[in-house]
Each structure stands twice: as structure tokens, then as C-alpha cells.
């Protein structure tokens, strides 16, 4: 009651009443003594001290009051606002307390804008209010600059560090909105911006829509950019793109807004699968305002999409550096507007690529890939010292050092510091991370690529020449691998050397892989073909080795021969043997086929024969092979047989003839129509010369027919003179030349029979029977009878009887006419009897019955056969023998 009475007294008007003033002073003193923490007392004391210009005391009282308010459960906004504004007014009067003053004012306006405004207008004169406003603007810029700096120094692109600095900025903005009506639109624009940066998308979008809906058009592009980012955060990409595109298409664009629009559109393009166009947007933004581009990405783009954007831009910068993608005016026709600064539509050159790479480094200074891209861009701009410095920084920060060493090695080599270059390369080799060079070589200039490749190759050759051992072999292979990686498509020399090194290491399959890599680019590379062939030789792979060496000899015989002759003697012998065998097989195929492809292959293989002769001129097999090729090719070229004959005479004319030479001589004579060939070839036929049938393949059908007929006539003449031995060789030649004609086989079988060589006779007659088809019945019956006769001659009675039965079953009268003229009819009858008896004894009644029946056809009056037939009938009465 007393406190309230004092308060009521203090609320009375003074009216210059001295007594009332004294009472009020007493009330002030009393209240200060008995209720110093009462909110109403504090408020009145602050007002009294302020009015008496006791500003420091006023600040002290206000501070004490605020402490009390804050400790209470429910401090009133009205009292708090009043105290804050009074303390701010006191601080304003005391110089050097602007930050504290602004903090109190912003807090007061946050608590109760209406009351704070009333107190502010009451305590601050218009001039003072203007000064406060200026202080607030200055503070606003400082606070926002602090936020931007915090964003700039973010260590990680996905971080949102610095957002804690935005609430003071927002409070200052809301204060200025209350006290600066003349800058209301600008302040609201900035307020929407800060809401966006803080992550309050709904509030920011509401302010943007409200401002854009008004009649005033200032800050339109800024608001469109802010609204676009709001849509982007809300995953409304079409709406965001529409806002960004409107800014870009504006005839009088605002650079800052354009940067934001390009960054926003770039992200949408990246997410939409157009990484190249996205990169062009960011490249253009960098050219407009580099630092602001980095800030926009870090502050305005959604945090969970910045990492993906960084990776996409890294890939595009790598492609630009590799010249796979060239940034140009394809960035979009919408960019070509008259309001754009000069040069922004220009093709992105190395400088533009470097700017984009630098942006990536700005986004994440710890990212190894971005730093390497930046160094590569500097290299392409010939700013080698800066590239070197950048790489040194990367070397100190990155755990993966090999990519950095590769780049430092090239830079040192370009400077002429070969020793330093070698040290860096050696470190790469020791680390075993040679693959890191693959990405780097793609950005190298052609002259630098050649320089580094040649250096690595030379280094490898030097190691191979001067040092020995497994370790140095591995070192040489590593240098060669670097040379191959650097060279790209032009690494034949290094691939050859590395393949040979792998061969020495025993890694034969790896060596083959290198040789194949060469042959993929140059299928006729003689050294690669020979090397691959030698490795297959070492692996015992006959077919593959032969194919490779033949291809080498056909392409460059001189070089291939030199390669083969450089091998050890045993290896040379093996190669020659395989080549000879392959060529002979091809010649045999030619003899059996007239396929044009076979003929073409024969033409190519003739070079192999010539090469074999060149390797060893004393090798008779190689010379014979060349003769065979000339003979085979003579089918199409009538001059070839004469060349072959001349070659044969020139090569073997001074040596003692052998079967190989004589056989070729005979074939050539036959081809040339010389009938003396029959005598030479018949002699070889008598020896059963293994190549004779193969050589016959060189003759055409008419030549073989003539040869067979002439040989048959010679044989016939000798048979008349009872010289069956002489006749045999001619008949053998006739058989070979005619491809086992049954006529000549029968004649030779008869000749063998005359000489009582029934086994050879049997072989011939069996071949005849196997060819039965369209022969007449008489001929077939005669062949069976002849077969049976020869079997009987070697005492093979059972088989002989079977063949006689076959003849009788074919045509009984013809068979009997042959049998009845046989002088050994009694012997034949006994053969039938003994065969039937053996069947009967073995209970083979049906066969016994058949044999006895046909035996009686041969000898109708043979009593033993009749008795046996009756016994068979009785014994096998239950069996069907008729």
C-alpha cells in the first residue's frame, strides 16, 4: 500500500509546485531504499536518472532491473521493453557503446515492436534516431560480412557452419524495418534473403511472393533469385527453373542476381542429367563474379546436393582439360543477351577452365581432386610455377601422393631437372601406383606427352643396359609401363621392350598381352609377330607360334628372318620344323581342294618356303618345299612347272638323286607331257614312297588319267612277258594315279596272285569289293569269287566259303561258271564239307545247313555233303533250317 501510494504520488503532474517536487524526491528515495528490485520502481528510477542526465547510473539501474526480470518466471514485455529502450538511450549518450545500444534496441523491438517504437520516439530526437539508424545499417553490414566470411572459410562443402551468425542479422533487419520506413522494400528483400540462408524457406517465400506481387518493380531479379532458391529447397524444380530463367533472359540483368540464377539453373541441370550445360553455367557465373559464385553454392544450395554437384563439376572440368568437352557458346542461346558483359558468351578457354577448377577448390580446399584439377589447368595455361606451388600444397595435404609426384615429375622434366624428375618417378614406382598417370596424361600437351614418354623409355633402356637382376628388370618394366601409359596409341617400341622383359621374367602370358596390344594397332608389325610367336614356342603352342611366324615372314621376310636367326640353334631348328610341317600340310590341302582361298594361301606360303631357304641354303627339305610350291602354283601358271624343273636341276643337279628329287622330277615330267615320267614314278611306287600320293595332287584329272593309262599299258606288256614283278610297280603307279580305280586294283591283285602274294592280293580285292555300287552283276560275282579263291589260297576256308556263298546268292549260274573253271574244284568241295562240319559240331545248324546246301551246288555228287545234310536235318528236326 505504501509503495503504491508513493507510485501514485510520482504519477502526479508537477505544475512547478516546489512542495510536490520535494515529496516526489522523498518518494524516489524511499522506493529506492525499500523496493529497489520492484519492476515499477526500477522503471521510474531509470526514467528519473535519464531525465537528470545521470546516464551511467541509468545504465546500472536498467542492467540490475533486467537481471531481476530475467530471473523471474514471467517478465512482462512492457516493462522489459521500457527498460531496454531506456538503457539503449543512456548508452547512446555515453560514447563507445554502439554495439550494446543496438543490442538493447533490437531486443526491445523483438519483445514488443509497438511499445519499443513509442519509447524510441519519446527518448530519441529525430537527429538522434537518424544516427541510430546509421549505426544499425553499419552493424547490419558488419554482421552479414561476418556471416559471409564464416561461409567462405568452411572446410567442407556440405557444412552449414556460420548459420549461427544469422539471428543477430535478422534482429537488426527487423529493427531497421521499424525505424527506416524509407528503405522498407530493400530491408524486406534482405529479410527474405536471410530467412532463406537461415533455412526458414516458408517465411522467405512468403516475403518474396508479397514483394513480387506489389506494383513496385525494384529488386525484381533479386527477389526472383531468392524465390527460385526457395522452390529449389522445396524440390519444386520447374518453378525454380522458371524464376532463374527469367533472370537470365532479362535484358538488363543484375550481376549478383545473374550469378545466383546461373548457380541455381546449373544445379537443376546437373540433377537433370545435363552435366556439361551445368558446368557452363558455373563457368559463366565464375566469370561474372568468382567469389560470389562460391558463396552462392555454399550458402544457397541445399547442403545435401552440394557434394554431388562438386563431383559432377570435377568430372566436367576433367573432360574440359582432356578436350573431350570444349566449353563454348553452346551454354545456351538464352545467355546471348545484349545486357551481358562482353566476353561472357565467348568460348571457355584455359582461363575459364582454371576459374572453374579454382571454384571447386574454393568449395572444398581439402579435396585432392579439385587441387589436382586446378594444378592441371595452370599447367595448360603455362603457369608452371603456380602449378608447382599448388602441387606442393597438395603434397603436404594429401595421403595419395603418386598423382602429385607424376605432375611434379613432368614439371621438373620441362625445367630440365632430370634428376628430380627421376626421383619423383622412382617414388611412384616404389609406391606401386602407376595407374595414377592415366588421368594425368589425358591433359598433357602433345609435346609434353612425347617428352615424358621418351624420357621413361630411355630410362628403362638405360636400366636394362647397365644393371642386371630381377629387381632391375622390374624397375625397367615399371618405367616402360609409364612410357606406355604416357604414349597412348604410339607405344610400340615400349610395348616391345616390356613384352621381352616379361618374357625374361617368365610372365609369358603377360608378354603375349603386350604383343597383342601392338598387333591390335598394327597387325603386320614383324617384331610383335615374331615376339609373340617366340613366346608361344616357349609355351609349346605349335599352332599359335606357327601362325604368328608365318604372318611375320609374309609381311617383312628380311626382318622376320633376322629375328628368327637371333634365337638359339635349338629354337631355330624347332621353328623351321614347324614351318616345314605347316607348309606341307597346306600343300596337301591344296591337292585335295581347288578352293580359291586355298590357292591364295598357297601363294602367301610360298614366301615362307623362300624364307626357309634363305635361313639355311643347304637345307634340302626347304628347297624341295620351294619346288612343291612352284609345282602347285603351276596349275594356274603354265610357266611355273618349267621354273620348278629349272630350280630342281639347278639345286640338285650336282648331287646324288634321291627319292624326293626323283618324285618331283617325275611329277614335273608328267605335267609337261613327258611319258618317261611313268618309269621314274613307277620305281618310286614300287618302294611305296610315302609322298607319291600327295604329289599326285599336283596333277589335274587328265594328267592323272594319262599317267594311269600309260602305266597300265606298261604293266600289261610286262605281264605278257611273264615279268609280274616289273608289272607290279606300274600297276601300283596306275592305282595311285587313278585314286584306286577298281580296274587297276583287280589287275594288281591278279599280279600279286601270280606271285603268290595272296595277302596283298586280298587287300586289293577287298578295296574293289568296297567300291561295289553300280558294277554289273557279273563283275561283282567275279570279284567275290576272286576274293574267295585268294582266301582259299591262304587256307582261310571259312571266309573263302562265305565269299563263294555270297557269289552264289548273287547269281548262281555266273558263280558256278567261275567255280567250275577252277582247277581246285575238289579242294573247294572239301572246304565246303569241313566248314559245314565245324558249324554242325558247334551246334550252328542253320549255318551248317546253308554251307552244305551251297556245297552240293559246287559238287552235286559229293556223298559226304549229302550225308551231312541228312544228319543236320535229323539232329535239328526242331530247328528251322530250310
TrEMBL record:
Gene3D superfamilies: Tetratricopeptide repeat domain. InterPro entries: TPR-like_helical_dom_sf, TPR_rpt, TTC34. It comes from Python bivittatus (Burmese python). It comes from the Eukaryota. This is Tetratricopeptide repeat protein 34.
Amino acid at each position: 500500500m505504501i509503495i503504491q501510494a508513493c507510485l501514485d504520488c510520482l504519477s502526479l503532474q508537477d505544475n512547478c509546485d516546489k512542495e510536490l517536487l520535494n515529496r516526489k524526491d522523498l518518494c524516489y528515495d524511499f522506493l529506492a531504499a525499500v523496493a529497489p528490485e520492484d519492476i515499477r520502481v526500477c522503471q521510474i528510477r531509470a526514467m528519473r536518472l535519464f531525465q537528470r542526465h545521470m546516464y551511467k547510473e541509468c545504465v546500472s539501474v536498467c542492467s540490475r532491473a533486467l537481471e531481476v526480470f530475467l530471473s523471474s518466471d514471467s517478465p512482462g514485455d512492457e516493462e522489459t521493453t521500457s527498460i531496454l529502450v531506456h538503457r539503449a538511450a543512456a548508452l547512446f549518450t555515453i560514447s563507445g557503446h554502439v554495439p550494446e545500444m543496438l543490442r538493447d534496441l533490437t531486443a526491445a523491438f523483438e519483445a514488443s515492436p509497438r511499445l519499443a517504437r513509442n519509447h524510441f520516439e519519446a527518448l530519441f530526437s529525430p537527429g538522434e534516431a537518424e544516427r541510430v539508424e546509421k549505426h544499425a545499417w553499419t552493424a547490419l553490414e558488419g554482421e552479414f560480412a561476418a556471416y559471409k566470411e564464416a561461409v567462405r572459410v568452411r572446410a567442407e562443402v556440405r557444412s552449414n557452419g556460420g548459420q549461427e551468425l544469422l539471428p543477430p542479422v535478422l534482429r537488426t533487419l527487423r529493427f531497421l524495418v521499424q525505424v527506416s520506413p524509407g528503405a522498407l522494400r530493400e530491408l524486406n528483400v534482405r529479410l527474405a534473403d536471410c530467412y532463406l540462408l537461415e533455412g526458414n524457406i516458408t517465411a522467405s517465400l512468403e516475403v518474396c511472393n508479397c514483394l513480387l506481387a506489389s506494383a513496385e518493380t525494384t529488386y525484381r531479379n533479386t527477389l526472383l533469385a531468392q524465390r527460385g532458391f526457395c522452390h529449389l529447397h522445396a524440390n519444386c524444380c520447374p518453378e525454380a527453373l522458371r524464376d532463374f530463367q527469367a533472370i537470365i533472359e532479362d535484358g538488363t540483368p543484375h550481376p549478383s542476381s545473374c550469378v545466383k540464377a546461373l548457380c541455381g539453373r546449373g544445379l537443376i541441370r546437373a540433377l537433370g542429367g545435363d552435366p556439361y550445360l551445368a558446368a557452363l553455367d558455373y563457368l559463366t557465373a565464375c566469370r561474372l563474379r568468382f567469389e560470389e559464385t562460391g558463396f552462392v553454392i555454399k550458402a544457397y544450395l541445399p547442403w545435401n546436393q552440394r557434394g554431388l554437384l562438386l563431383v559432377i563439376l570435377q568430372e566436367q572440368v576433367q573432360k574440359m582439360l582432356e578436350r573431350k568437352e570444349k566449353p563454348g557458346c553452346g551454354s545456351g542461346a538464352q545467355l546471348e543477351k545484349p545486357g551481358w558483359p562482353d566476353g561472357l558468351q565467348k568460348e571457355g578457354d584455359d582461363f575459364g577452365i582454371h576459374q572453374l577448377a579454382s571454384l571447386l577448390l574454393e568449395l572444398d580446399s581439402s579435396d585432392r581432386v579439385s587441387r589436382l584439377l586446378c594444378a592441371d589447368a595452370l599447367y595448360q595455361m603455362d603457369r608452371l610455377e603456380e602449378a608447382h606451388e599448388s602441387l606442393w600444397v597438395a603434397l603436404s595435404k594429401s595421403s595419395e601422393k603418386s598423382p602429385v609426384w607424376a605432375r611434379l615429375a613432368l614439371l621438373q622434366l620441362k625445367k630440365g631437372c632430370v634428376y628430380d624428375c627421376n626421383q619423383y618417378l622412382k617414388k611412384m614406382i616404389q609406391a606401386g601406383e602407376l595407374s595414377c598417370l592415366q588421368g594425368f596424361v589425358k591433359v598433357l600437351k602433345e609435346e609434353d606427352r612425347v617428352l615424358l614418354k621418351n624420357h621413361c623409355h630411355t630410362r628403362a633402356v638405360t636400366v636394362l643396359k647397365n644393371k642386371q637382376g630381377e629387381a632391375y628388370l622390374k624397375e625397367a618394366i615399371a618405367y616402360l609401363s609409364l612410357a606406355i601409359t604416357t604414349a597412348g596409341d604410339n607405344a610400340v617400341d615400349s610395348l616391345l621392350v616390356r613384352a621381352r622383359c616379361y618374357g625374361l621374367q617368365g610372365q609369358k602370358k603377360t608378354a603375349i598381352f603386350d604383343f597383342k596390344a601392338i598387333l591390335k594397332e598394327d597387325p603386320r608389325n614383324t617384331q610383335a609377330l615374331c615376339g609373340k610367336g617366340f613366346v608361344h614356342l616357349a609355351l609349346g603352342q605349335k599352332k599359335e607360334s606357327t601362325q604368328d611366324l608365318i604372318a611375320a615372314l609374309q609381311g617383312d621376310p628380311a626382318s622376320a628372318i633376322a629375328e628368327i636367326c637371333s634365337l638359339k640353334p635349338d629354337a631355330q631348328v624347332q621353328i623351321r620344323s614347324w614351318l616345314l610341317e605347316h607348309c606341307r600340310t597346306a600343300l596337301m590341302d591344296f591337292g585335295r581342294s581347288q578352293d580359291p582361298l586355298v590357292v591364295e594361301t598357297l601363294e602367301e606360303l610360298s614366301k615362307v618356303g623362300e624364307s626357309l631357304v634363305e635361313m639355311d641354303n643347304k637345307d634340302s627339305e626347304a628347297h624341295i618345299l620351294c619346288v612343291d610350291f612352284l609345282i602347285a602354283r603351276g596349275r594356274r601358271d603354265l610357266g611355273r612347272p618349267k621354273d620348278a624343273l629349272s630350280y630342281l636341276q639347278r639345286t640338285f643337279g650336282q648331287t646324288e638323286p634321291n627319292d624326293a628329287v626323283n618324285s618331283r622330277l617325275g611329277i614335273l615330267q608328267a605335267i609337261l607331257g613327258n611319258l618317261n615320267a611313268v618309269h621314274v614314278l613307277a620305281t618310286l611306287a614300287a618302294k611305296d614312297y610315302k609322298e607319291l600320293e600327295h604329289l599326285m595332287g599336283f596333277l589335274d584329272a587328265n594328267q592323272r588319267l594319262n599317267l594311269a593309262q600309260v602305266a597300265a599299258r606298261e604293266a600289261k606288256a610286262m605281264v605278257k612277258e611273264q615279268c609280274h614283278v616289273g608289272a607290279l610297280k606300274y600297276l601300283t603307279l596306275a592305282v595311285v594315279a587313278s585314286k584306286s580305280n577298281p580296274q587297276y586294283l583287280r589287275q594288281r591283285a591278279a599280279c600279286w596272285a601270280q606271285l603268290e602274294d595272296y595277302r596283298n592280293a586280298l587287300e586289293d580285292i577287298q578295296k574293289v569289293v568296297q567300291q561295289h555300287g553300280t558294277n554289273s552283276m557279273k563283275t561283282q560275282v567275279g570279284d567275290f569269287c576272286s576274293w574267295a579263291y585268294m582266301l582259299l589260297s591262304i587256307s582261310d576256308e571259312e571266309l573263302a566259303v562265305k565269299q563263294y556263298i555270297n557269289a552264289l546268292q548273287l547269281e548262281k549260274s555266273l558263280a558256278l561258271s567261275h567255280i567250275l573253271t577252277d582247277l581246285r574244284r575238289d579242294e573247294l568241295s572239301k572246304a565246303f564239307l569241313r566248314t559245314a562240319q565245324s558249324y554242325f559240331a558247334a551246334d550252328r545248324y542253320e549255318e551248317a545247313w546253308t554251307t552244305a546246301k551251297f556245297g552240293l551246288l559246287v559238287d552235286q555228287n559229293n556223298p559226304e555233303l549229302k550225308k551231312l545234310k541228312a544228319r543236320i536235318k535229323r539232329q535239328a528236326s526242331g530247328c528251322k533250317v530250310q
